[in-house]
Design brief:
This protein is mostly beta strands. It is built from 3 helices and 12 strands. The longest helix is centred in the N-terminal third of the chain and has 4 residues, at about 30. It is elongated. The chain starts with a strand and ends in a 7-residue tail after the last strand.
């Protein structure tokens, strides 16, 4: 089974088993809803399934309580671990929107067929995402995720077609 990160447990909160989570998902309300199932990578390598008992916003993060984990000693070991969702539990996306894991690793070509490199990461600095393209023997290329630049995403063939606007390269 494949898993994808939806948040990181950064600390415990209080003595009643709550943890502070920094979410890394666009679906915060669905992922951290009461009864939702999330997974932690355990030391043995088998994922530990956790069920959300409650979640509430707190100073830019989310305070999460898991069913059956009722004091700080139960959750102390979860600190600095990633919370994950299974592939089957991922939300379907609208046409033209993608999960990061679908985009990272795709080959980037210009509309005239010139290969530029491979997408190595996605940044979210503000109004739109920026796709970082690793180019051989050159500095990374930063492509804003806007319709004027990203012309076509072909997941089946692993290719993104782009039009480089003046000043991008």
């Amino acid at each position: 089974m494949k898993f994808y990160n939806v948040g990181k447990i950064v600390n415990t909160h209080g003595i009643r088993g709550e943890v502070r989570v920094i979410p890394t998902t666009d679906f915060v309300n669905e992922r951290f809803a009461k009864g939702a199932k999330l997974y932690l990578e355990s030391i043995e390598g088998t994922p530990l399934e956790l069920e959300i008992e409650s979640a509430r916003p707190h100073k830019g993060s989310i305070l999460v309580k898991f069913v059956g984990y009722d004091n700080i000693n139960d959750v102390e070991k979860f600190r600095n671990q990633e919370l994950r969702v299974s592939e089957e539990d991922q939300q379907p996306l609208e046409e033209g929107t993608y999960y990061y894991h679908q985009i990272i690793g795709l080959t980037v070509k210009t509309i005239d067929g010139r290969e530029l490199g491979t997408i190595k990461e996605i940044l979210s600095p503000g109004a739109n995402d920026v796709w970082v393209v690793q180019r051989p023997h050159k500095a990374d290329l930063l492509l804003p995720k806007i319709d004027d630049v990203i012309k076509n995403v072909d997941l089946d063939n692993g290719v993104v077609e782009v039009e480089l606007l003046e000043g991008l390269e």
